[in-house]
Amino acid sequence: MDSRTTPDAEPEPWSEADFAPIVIFLREKIGITLEPHRMGLLQARLRSRLQQKGFPSFTKFNERVLKTDPNGPGMQLLIDLSTVNHTAFFREPAHFTFLTERLGPAVRDLSNGPVRIWSAGCSTGQEPFSMAMVLSEMIPNLSPQRVEIWASDLSLEVLKAAARAIYNARDVQVISPSRLRRFFLRGRGPRDGSYRVVPEIRDLVRFRHLDLRQPNWPLPTDFHAILCRNVSIYFADDERILLLERLAQHVRPGGWLVLGNGEILPVVPSSLRKYSPSIYRKEA
């Protein structure tokens, strides 16, 4: 009998065993823990992309790309494919109504500087632009001197789309005709069917590429409100608690933290008080 050690056979291409190193990489290198149905979606997306590039399996992608340069384009590809959220203009509209009512007086009063709002996990930009629109409806001639809307995301792909601020007819179908006329420029000729957010709204939003798991966030620490909706679903419970505590540190006393309506928190940071099922206020 041959006593020499032989390498383990590679798993069957595109199988669950073949995908296992990708799951480990997501958890250990990026910190993303996906639910089973989301993991299946990522697996399908990644397989399609890799086959287009000539990779014969997930194992070969792991060996040739992820192991060679763990922080390179392979990691960014996984981020872009795994964190694309379904988003929409004025999604969960009660949140926007609530914030405009609470923040409107502060926006009108320039004595204490601009009101700062952060859309953490902004995806393709609908959330921060929605916030800018409702504030503009409340306060005429709104300017960056009155309100700063910061918008960040882990995915470079969606941030580039957000910064372009160009949407198709399906994206804007939820927007009323009056808002569409006021806040969007309709494409002409070869761009017919596209809509771009007007400059005065785009100017209110600052986009930043940001990993919420990094120890330092190069952002202000005095936000009047932070919207971090449906982002913590990518975090394990212990990481979710840490994320909420850090977000609370970036909210000014009396400010607001808004989460997604369906998010369940394992623990609420001591500095926050629940106002409604998805809205929290920082102790003054």
Walk me through this protein's architecture.
The structure is a single chain. With 284 residues, the chain is α/β, with parallel strands linked by helices. It has ten helices and ten strands. It has two domains: 67 residues, Orthogonal Bundle (Chemotaxis Receptor Methyltransferase Cher, domain 1); 190 residues, Vaccinia Virus protein VP39 (Rossmann fold), CATH 3.40.50.150. The protein has a seven-stranded mixed sheet with strand order 6-2-1-7-8-10-9, sandwiched between helices. Strands 3-5-4 form a three-stranded antiparallel sheet. A hairpin with a 2-residue loop joins strand 9 and strand 10. Helix 2 crosses helix 4 and helix 5 crosses helix 6. The N terminus is likely disordered.
What is the C-level CATH assignment of the largest domain?
Alpha Beta
- Kindly state the mean pLDDT as a whole number? 90
N-to-C order of helices and strands: HHHHHEHEHEHEEHEEHEEE
Rg measurement, Å: 22 Å
Contiguous low-pLDDT stretches (5 residues minimum) are 1-6
Major sheet details: 7 strands, mixed
SSE-based structural type:
alpha/beta
Strand order of the largest sheet: 6-2-1-7-8-10-9
Describe how the helices and strands are arranged:
Layout: H1 16-30, H2 36-52, H3 58-66, H4 73-82, H5 93-108, E1 115-120, H6 126-138, E2 147-153, H7 156-164, E3 166-168, H8 177-183, E4 184-186, E5 194-197, H9 199-202, E6 205-209, E7 223-227, H10 237-249, E8 251-258, E9 272-276, E10 279-282
Parallel strand pairs: 1-2, 1-7, 2-6, 7-8
Antiparallel strand pairs: 3-5, 4-5, 8-10, 9-10
Helix pairs in contact: 1-3, 2-4, 5-6
